[in-house]
Each structure stands twice: as structure tokens, then as C-alpha cells.
Design goal:
By secondary structure, the chain is α+β, with helices and mostly antiparallel strands. The chain is 36% helix and 36% strand. The protein has five helices and ten strands. A hairpin with a 5-residue loop joins strand 4 and strand 5.
């Protein structure tokens, strides 16, 4: 007993050294080992109808006399505008772009394929028209009935309508929320199945926003795809979350 009393300080120091060595040894052995984490990807996806349509077309007139060509082109502009308005499209949705003027020539070539003579064949004026409307159904229907203008003597080149959605920002926020919730539920289930519990969120990364035609084989693009050819679309986004495991 006297020995213990006399050497209690030495004994306590020795015990402290042993405990400290044990702790440092465990720290060294675990050094470089990553904390247990789980990484999951959640998906947010929804389909929707476009609420904005843009339809483009153009027509042209050709004449040796530039002034006459303009006069004939302007007559066609009035016919096209009248036709569109008769279909119920308001004038505010119709935009006529500046006319494009091209001098056209016919060429004669020699036996070596070089131009020998050129002949001026007239001025070709091309007029573009664009309809931008939220009445998707009406403009879509009108774009399919433009043969009536062709019958009226107007050589109209009609392009396929383009479809857009004006509430993408709001839609994107909802999809991010959906994708985040989906990723959390996946992570929670995996942690439970492994006998642990979900800890703190370490990182969150958002994937690329993709818009494709619904039920299509459109390929995703690295910077994000944006389909404009289909009225009915599907949008999706992914969220990659990394959690600690307790």
C-alpha cells in the first residue's frame, strides 16, 4: 500500500501514456480511410404540352424591274396578312421581316468549264413571315392549310412549326424538388437495408436539364437538349446527393 501511495503519480503517468498510445495508434491505422458515405442519383421527370408556337414561311417574286418586283411582293404581303387574319390570327401575332433582294444571273460556260458569258435574269425578292402565338391549336391548323395561298398564286414555302414552353423556370424548380426527394428516399432505403442510418448531406450536384419529345428516342446532349419540333414534350433532370452514414 505504501508502495502505491509513493508511486501513484508514476503509475497514473504510465497509464496515461498507454491510453494515449492506444488512441494515437488507432488514429494512425484509420488515417486515409474515407468516412462511410453513400452516393445516390434521383430523377425528376414530367411531360407537358407546349404553350407557344412559332411558325415561319416565306414567298418570293421575280422581275427584271426592281420596283415592279416590290409592287408584286407587297401585293402578296397583303394577301398573306388577310388570309392569316381570316383564320383568326390577330395582326399582333404576325411579323413580316425585311425582304431579301438577290440579283440572279444565267451563265454560259466554255469547253473548259469556265464562265464565258453571264446574263442578268432579274431581281428575286424573298419575303419572310413569322407567326408567334399562344394559340397553338389555331396556328398549327393554319400551317397545314396554306395550300389555299398556293392556289391563290402565292408560292409559299411553309416550315414546320416550332413549339416552346414559357414556364420553364417554374417547371425546373419543381423537377429539382422531385429529383432531390427521389434521391433522398433512395439513400434512406439503402442505408436502412445496410443496417445503418442516413447522416448529414455532404454534397449535392444538379445534372443537365433535358427536354425531348414525349415517348421518343431523342438522345440526350452533353450541354442539355431542347426539343422544339414536338408539341408534347418530356423534361427531366437529375440530382446527385452524397450522405454520411451513421
Amino acid at each position: 500500500m505504501n508502495f502505491l501511495k509513493a508511486n501513484v503519480a508514476t503509475i497514473l503517468i504510465s497509464i496515461s501514456v498507454i491510453i494515449t498510445g492506444y488512441i494515437l495508434g488507432n488514429s494512425y491505422l484509420s488515417k486515409g480511410k474515407a468516412d462511410p458515405v453513400i452516393s445516390v442519383t434521383g430523377l425528376g421527370e414530367t411531360s407537358f404540352d407546349s404553350d407557344l408556337i412559332v411558325w415561319r414561311a416565306n414567298f418570293s417574286k421575280k422581275n427584271f424591274d426592281l420596283k415592279q418586283a416590290y409592287s408584286e411582293l407587297n401585293a402578296d404581303v397583303r394577301k398573306v396578312k388577310s388570309y392569316l387574319k381570316s383564320k383568326g390570327i390577330p395582326e399582333s401575332d404576325i411579323v413580316f421581316e425585311a425582304a431579301d433582294i438577290q440579283k440572279e444571273f444565267s451563265y454560259e460556260y466554255d469547253d473548259n468549264g469556265s464562265v464565258r458569258t453571264s446574263y442578268f435574269t432579274g431581281y428575286n425578292l424573298t419575303q419572310g413571315v413569322k407567326v408567334r402565338s399562344k394559340n397553338v391549336e389555331l396556328v398549327e391548323k393554319t400551317s397545314r392549310e396554306v395550300s389555299q395561298l398556293i392556289d391563290a398564286g402565292i408560292e409559299l414555302n411553309s416550315f414546320a412549326p416550332e413549339y416552346y414552353y414559357t414556364k420553364l423556370a417554374e417547371l425546373k424548380l419543381k423537377m429539382i424538388e422531385q429529383a432531390t426527394k427521389d434521391a433522398f428516399n433512395r439513400a434512406e432505403k439503402i442505408a436502412e437495408n445496410a443496417g445503418g442510418s442516413l447522416g448529414k448531406l455532404k454534397t449535392a450536384e444538379m445534372g443537365v436539364f433535358q427536354i425531348t419529345a414525349e415517348n421518343s428516342a431523342d438522345e440526350y446532349e452533353w450541354g442539355g437538349s431542347f426539343n422544339t419540333t414536338s408539341r408534347r414534350k418530356t423534361a427531366n433532370i437529375t440530382m446527385r446527393l452524397k450522405y454520411e452514414i451513421d
